[in-house]
Here is the input.
Amino acid sequence: MFQRKPLIAGNWKMNLDIDESVRLVKAISRGIKSSETVDVLLAPPFTSLSAVRQAIGNANIFLAAQNMHWEKKGAYTGEISAEMLQKTGCTHVILGHSERRSLFNETSEMIDRKVQAAVHAGLFPIVCVGETLEQREKGQAFEVIEDQLVVSLKNFREDQDMPSSVILAYEPVWAIGTGRTASQEEAQKMHQFIRGWIRRNFGVETETQIRILYGGSVKPENVADLMSEPDIDGALVGGASLKADSFVKIINFK
Ligand code: PGA
Here is the structure.
């Protein structure tokens, strides 16, 4: 059977200056027990990317940005392209995080363009989807997630082909930064639904290869239970990735 390697990703959001970032990477890198059993990824702010890349050295840690623009270059003040990220040493990019969607009005159409640009530039996109509390309480969670997938991955659907380098992340908005995690059953149910959607759109091979991360108040205390579910292939960690001890415990969850 195809084994999906777990991925533990730290999303630092708008936190840590360059020195703090370098200190944190070094501490994390010392704490990783085995890169054979788990992939580790860090997503610092843009300003720390180069320094973090250097501090990673030969350690097995992937570097990601938290966002990018879909154009290659031009008059887009304040934006960064996939090529620029790649040249800075990034291998991955987080796209469509709920904070980007809700605070900066990013739509799934925009995310689709970004996903395409990332893949063309050779970056692995981590595409986030998630429903709000209101949507969940109205019983719309599955419908909302399906809509976000349909539009955010529109180009792949048209080609009926999605590269296995794409990573999906289910992050219920009501669980992000709130301390309230989805129960492992709730999370598994949605992950299973997403995997079924991948099968219907891209076939069994893609379904078995694509990693689906869970995000939303992941901490050392709940990571093992979440990771024991068959369709949860990793974690996208915000708050608990800002401290070496908690993030290292999450990485070494086994
Ligand atoms: P959190 O954030 O772990 O602080 O809830 C997760 C995320 O937003 O990626």
Q: What stands out?
A: The mean pLDDT is 96.
